[in-house]
Amino acid sequence: MFRFRTPIYHPNIKDGLICQEMLGEKEWLPNKKVQDIVETILGMLAHPDCSSAINLEAAGQVKEGTFFQVAREKAQKEAIK
User: Fold this and answer.
1) Pfam families recorded for this chain (predicted)?
2) For residue 35, what are the domain limits?
3) Who wins on pLDDT, 16 or 32?
């Protein structure tokens, strides 16, 4: 399991937890490389997948085309805390 400690606003992340489907946990093997996991997370952050969304508000914003602006604003607010 992977958890962000800093709040992340994203369709595939809720309460810091990444949608397990996004990490391929159904096919998890003990020999999976950390590099592969990091690359998967980076790809997910850049390309939200609304078909496996766990944050429905953010998923709706992806469909509306407002997600990246809202996420940027939330990240800026979090950064000044």
Assistant:
1) UQ_con
2) 13-79
3) 16
CB 43 within 8 A of CB 80: no
Is residue 65 domain-resident?
A: yes
Q: Tell me the C-alpha distance between 10 and 8, whole Å.
A: 6
Rounded to whole angstroms, the maximal C-alpha distance in the chain is 39
What whole-number distance in Å separates Cα of residue 6 and Cα of residue 48? 18
Residue 25 backbone phi and psi in degrees, to 5: -70, -15
Mean per-residue pLDDT, 44-73? 96
Q: Cβ of 8: how many Cβ atoms within 10 Å?
A: 21
pTM of the model: 0.82
